Amino acid sequence: MSGLSQIEAALLQTLGSLEQRVAGMSEQLDEMQGVITEIGAPKDWYTTTEVAELMGITRQTVQDRWCNQGRIKCEKCEATGKWRIPGQEYDRLRRGGRLEN
After folding, report:
1. Residue closest to 84 by CA, chosen among 99, 69, 62
2. Which stretches within 40-77 are classed as H helix?
3. What is the pLDDT of residues 17-56, one digit of tens each?
4. Are 71 and 31 in contact (CB under 8 A)?
5. Residue 98 Cα distances to 42, 61, 88, angstroms
6. How close are the terminal C-alpha atoms of the chain, in Å?
7. What is 45-94's CATH number, 2.60.40.10, 1.10.1660.10, 1.10.540.10, 2.40.30.10?
8. How far is CA 33 from CA 8, 20, 21, 50, 95, in A?
């Protein structure tokens, strides 16, 4: 009988360990989902304001220093006359891509 109680104790200990690991993985998945939600779906085009907010810099930096000086790939929208940045260029910058000189 005592052998059975040792097996039960070992099983309970293993189950407890598994429960902790699953809880940890659940927390990690929740964090990952939060990051994905925060990032949002990739877009084809971004405004200078969106790029600035996503990268934690000012709109003036994106517009005046990057777009006006030709340091990133961008184009002016024909309808609005405002700069717009292709989604691929934003992704490149986000991954640490360098600015053109």
Report:
1. 62
2. 48-55, 59-60
3. 999 999 899 889 888 877 766 666 688 999 999 999 999 9
4. no
5. 20, 15, 14
6. 79
7. 1.10.1660.10
8. 37, 20, 18, 21, 20
